[in-house]
Amino acid sequence: MNAPRPARRRWVARPTSSIAIVAVLALAVAGSAASASASAPSPGATERVALAGSPSPDGPAEPWRWPVPAPIRVVAPFRAPPTPYAAGHRGIDIASTTAATVVAPAPGVVSFAGMVAGRPVVAIDHGAGVVSAIEPVAALVEAGAPVAAGDAIGTVSMGGHCASGCVHFGVRVDGEYVSPFLFLGGLPRAVLLPFD
Question: What CATH number did the domain enclosing 121 receive?
Fold first, then answer.
């Protein structure tokens, strides 16, 4: 006597809910849009970086020069305030030596050279709404003087909010303080010097 054969299972396609299909497609589209926006820089950042240096038709603008001689040591970074009138650090502090030469970071016109709250300041208008200011600087230039990148504009003086032998370097775009690193292109490479 033969044993009864087990019943064969048949695969049956079940209709999938159209709501489930729409939900899966919506998640896929949202995920790809999020990854694309995460990899692309924000429009504001792109506009500001494009203002740095001298525009070149062959590529990105040249980064600005550091206003004091190497070696460069940033002793206090830029810290954007949460509101225009709140506490923050609207520039960077760079270690230097007293009487070291201070140079123009980029071409422009000196818009101010004088005292502000007891500190000697030199400000340069670079055009397109970009203004840099360095303090404390004993000015060698006067307001209205055109300067090229690297031109001497003064020497490191005394006063200011950082310790002696330090300069504060700030940049404004359309009146709003931004990090000078947007224009400087990062820290220069460190060079080890031999001991005497």
Answer: 2.70.70.10
